[in-house]
Amino acid sequence: MPTEPQRRLIDPERVTAALAGLGERETVQQWADRFSVIADPSRLTLLVCIHYAREICVSDLAVAAGMSDTAVSQALRLLRAHGLVTSERRGRVVYYKLADETMHELIHHVRPHSAAE
C-alpha cells in the first residue's frame, strides 16, 4: 500500500485551529445535507414563512407561500425528515414550527428583521 507523501506545514497552529473548528466530518456532511434541502426556493420560502409565523398549519402556510396544500405537505414531509421542522396536532389541525434555534438564526442572517419587525 502506497504511503501518503509528507505535506509541508507553514503554520501548524493554524492547521490545528482549522481542524478543531471543522469538527467531525460526519457533522459537516449533515450540514451539507441540510443546506441541500433548504437550497430549494419553495422549501426555503416555507421555512421563512414558518419562522415569521412561529407556527402555522398547512392551509395557512400554502396561502402565505403561494403554493398548493399538496405541494406544501410534500415539502413539509421532507423538511421533517431532515429535522428542520416539527409538528404538533391540535384536534384536526397540525401546526408546524422550526425544529431548532439554529434555523431561526440562519433565517435571520438570510433575511434580517427590519427595525419595525
Can you give a write-up of this model?
This protein has 117 residues and is mainly α. It has one domain (12-110): Orthogonal Bundle (Arc Repressor Mutant, subunit A), CATH 1.10.10.10. The chain has helices spanning 12-22, 25-38, 41-53, 58-65, 69-81, 101-110; strands at residues 56-57, 85-90, 93-98. It has a three-stranded antiparallel sheet. A hairpin with a 2-residue loop joins strand 2 (85-90) and strand 3 (93-98). Helix 4 (58-65) packs across helix 5. The chain is elongated. The termini are far apart.
In a nutshell, what does this entry contain?
The protein has 117 residues and is mostly helical.
Topology:
Elements lengths: L11 H11 L2 H14 L2 H13 L2 E2 H8 L3 H13 L3 E6 L2 E6 L2 H10 L7
Antiparallel strand pairs: 1-3, 2-3
Helix pairs in contact: 3-4, 4-5
